[in-house]
Amino acid sequence: MKTIIPVAALLVCLGVAGTAAYSSAAPPKFSIETVAGNGKEGDISGPMPALSAPVGLPFGVEVGPDGALYITTIGAHRVLRLDRTTNQLTSVAGNGIKGYSGNGGPANQARLNEPYEVRFDKEGNMYFVEMQNHLIRRVDASRGVISTIAGDGHSGFAGDGGPAKKARFKQPHSIALDEQGDIYVADIGNHRIRRIDSRAGKIATIAGTGEHALPVDGESARGKPILGPRALAISGRTLWIALREGNSVWKLDLDRGTIHHVAGTGKAGYSGDGGPARQATFNGPKGIAVSPDGSVLVVDSENQVVRAIEPASGLICTVAGGGPQARGFAGDKSNALDAQVDRPHGIGIAPGGGFYLGDTNNHRVRWVHQ
Fold first, then answer.
1. What is the pTM of this model?
2. What pLDDT, on the 0 to 100 scale, is given for residue 200?
3. Euclidean distance between CA atoms 73 and 144, whole angstroms
4. Are the beta carbons of 358 and 365 closer than 8 angstroms?
């Protein structure tokens, strides 16, 4: 196992240590390598060595409480578990057949429909979004039993103020859990963020009105628009949000309910590295994660890169990927900034630092480390 870097070390390229960004020194070199997937779309037939297994269209990547890496695959409609000690890949949810079934039974016998992101609560229970089933499922940590906790399985908007199980979503993409176990849902088709009270089981909209417009910086998020919330991450009482159509990054104060602009002008493009994040441009960001040191990593999917934001300075830089013209697959075990990726989506912080990336169209999961 290689030594993995703190995410903060990646931000040397921002010049936050007192030198001008990209001044006389070149950005630091960090390596990228494949940890799962053989580059072919397909489905695993049982436990398999991770590098020889087909991992069809991986999206979400998240390290679980057991230290394993969990991967959602929309090509095979499964949630996979990668044991980083043995490098064996197994299926923990989904039977590989597209559909909706299995509640009350073993998760690995259920039918799923495009699981997008996966998260865990303090007890180790697993949660994931099924985008095309318009719902959220839960897998019990002790028994491996699957259930639906939110969504009636139909596309639309309904249910605020009532039971989450009777609510209606439209292509939900991302979820995040806070310290109390409340669940936040990026209901992207409805241009809303919704919260499920874990104790009462009720759902409410906390941001967005359905209107296709950017939020208003510094104002209350409730009752105001939010454009294409695609990815969510929680750090303390702050909800970090990547807007896909909005080409920007925001943070929502969960106690005060106010929303604040962090990065991106709202226009599509690829610019701004080494400067203020609010003046940078993104193109369809689809993943976001926060490291323990507070660094914010954003998967700038259509630009084929991962970018880092240092909140204290407000600066941004690219930390992996060669940019919009470098779409493809190349660069394993070489400088991450020279690597080619193909429409990456999910991102997860690795234990001790570094991060995992769902390199979706390359049918691989990759790891950035020192």
1. 0.94
2. 94
3. 19
4. yes
